[in-house]
Design brief:
The protein is mainly beta and 56 residues long. The chain is 0% helix and 54% strand. The chain has a 4-stranded antiparallel sheet, with no helix packed on it. A hairpin with a 4-residue loop joins strand 3 and strand 4. It is elongated.
């Protein structure tokens, strides 16, 4: 099985209501910039932009 040494977990936070809806991970050595996705927010009940934030 492959190791997960370069991967880091983080939250995806809604840009409208600031709720943290999703947890995902990325390869830190290959992607230096912060990720942003258009995902469904459960609180806003619509698809909004979600940005990367620190996992606590």
């Amino acid at each position: 099985m492959a190791k997960k040494g370069n991967r880091q977990s983080f939250n995806l936070e809604c840009s409208v209501c600031k709720s943290k809806n999703y947890v995902t991970e990325k390869n830190v050595t290959k992607t230096k910039e912060k990720l942003a996705f258009k995902k469904f927010c459960k609180k806003c009940r619509k698809a909004t932009d979600h940005n990367e934030t620190k996992l606590k």
